[in-house]
Design goal:
8 helices, two-stranded antiparallel ribbon, elongated, 223 residues
């Protein structure tokens, strides 16, 4: 009988110790640690911690981390029609349609990723050629001078940046559509061009949302 009672007491003691450990770890890992991390993030990196929001006229217009489309409606086939008053981003993943292959063509945040099509894939080749022709005709440049990021998507399909070359290529058309001085719009692009990280990592880039936000403000000031 004594052995049984000791066994019960030992089991109860172990269970109580386990429960105490669970409660302590829950408070530390589930309450104190998240509060500490959130506090440090808000104090030291509040902009990034809150999603790198971009604001215009006091309203959030997007995140500098995510690309978005600038369209003025859809054509009779249901395809989006780019609004050429704004700088256009690079294509989102797939260069196809959701109906055809289920990939993200409209910066849908729920569908992130590339198509993983090989460079020899006929659908990809056709889409790139069509996109290159559109860029050439729309912006009045030879197809040979169309930058790669103007006709291909990023690995995530959500890249918010374009190359300085693609942004500068769009300057004349954007200035014309908004009745702005070309030199002023070109300076705007230059002012929103970010260099390589630490001077050697990555490539120079232009955040399209931030650029278009500044462009909108320029148009409003002119008007």
């Amino acid at each position: 009988m004594t052995v049984v009672n000791n066994s019960v007491r030992n089991t109860a003691r172990l269970a109580a110790a386990g429960l105490r450990a669970l409660l302590v770890l829950t408070v530390i890992c589930g309450v104190l640690y998240p509060l500490a991390v959130t506090g440090v993030a808000q104090a030291a990196f509040s902009e990034k911690a809150n999603g790198s929001e971009v604001r215009s006229e006091g309203k959030v217009v997007g995140s500098s981390l995510l690309g978005q489309r600038y369209d003025k409606g859809h054509d009779k086939h249901g395809n989006p029609v780019p609004d050429l008053k704004f700088f256009q981003p690079r294509p989102s993943a797939g260069l196809g349609s959701n109906k055809d292959n289920g990939v993200n063509t409209r910066y849908d945040l729920q569908v992130s990723g590339a198509t993983n099509l090989a460079a020899s894939n006929t659908d990809l080749i056709k889409a790139v050629k069509e996109r290159k022709h559109w860029v050439s005709v729309t912006y009045g440049v030879p197809e040979a001078k169309v930058p790669a990021d103007a006709v291909t998507s990023s690995g995530s399909g959500l890249d918010p940046d374009v190359s300085p070359a693609y942004a500068q290529l769009q300057v004349d058309r954007v200035a014309k559509e908004n009745h702005l001085d070309k030199a002023a719009v070109r300076r705007l692009v230059t002012g929103h061009t970010t260099g390589r990280v630490l001077g050697f990592m990555g490539e120079p880039r232009v955040n399209v949302l931030e650029l278009n936000t500044a462009l909108r403000e320029m148009v409003q000031q002119k008007g």
